[in-house]
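Page 47, continued from p. 46.
Same chain as before, 259 aa.
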Amino acid sequence: MELYDTHTHLNADRYDGRLDDLILEAKREGVRYMNVVGFDAETNRKAQQIANQYANLYASAGLHPTDAHTFTQQDLDQVEAYLKEAKTVAVGECGLDYYWHKDTVQVQKEIFWAQIALAKQYQKPLIIHCRDAMQDLYDLLAEASGDGKLQGVMHSYSGSAEMAKRFIELGFYISLSGPVTFKNARGPKEVAKLVPLDRLLIETDCPYLTPHPYRGKENRPALVKLVAEEIARIKGISLEEVAEQTTRNGKQLFQIGSL
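Result:
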């Protein structure tokens, strides 16, 4: 069985000096592939460093919407430079976040649109963050997807199942993380039930969103297995089937190896 944690922040400072142990632990649980996701200059740099150090770890480079008002053209240029590297498989984490910054909506859209353009130019998928901005984000993606050249994933998806179907119609995948395991998480469980398995990805978003029964403690890539197990339970299928299909989906989206 092979699992693909498509969204980690192993570039977080708290993991410094512990990567060997965390990656070995994950492999023991069947986690063969991992994405290390960047969202600003420093995390983009560390994502590259980590991906180049370990087999089957891949990097992304992006600019997060909560800091959109601080980014410059130089930051975008650096993202573009990383997209030319062999182990950079995606643009992001990027998107819209109105929860923290309702006063930067316009600049968020501008920075996101610039990254959409880079994704198209370099034929890389988007890793999309969205919080309290689902309709605006959908409208932007619908406009950008008209030529059929845009792909990506709704990372740690927190929207409705109905909205998930609309993103899938645009050609996007839906990724579920720890909240799908929470006992009172009706929304993510409904999404897991209704979204076709061939459009699902799994992730930890570690060190955040630790799955049950470790909620409140530090998250680790090894725990992505708990996300897969819950999806299997909800769908009434085997863990192996979830692992096989979501790993195939991830390898296809991020253009990794032979499929």
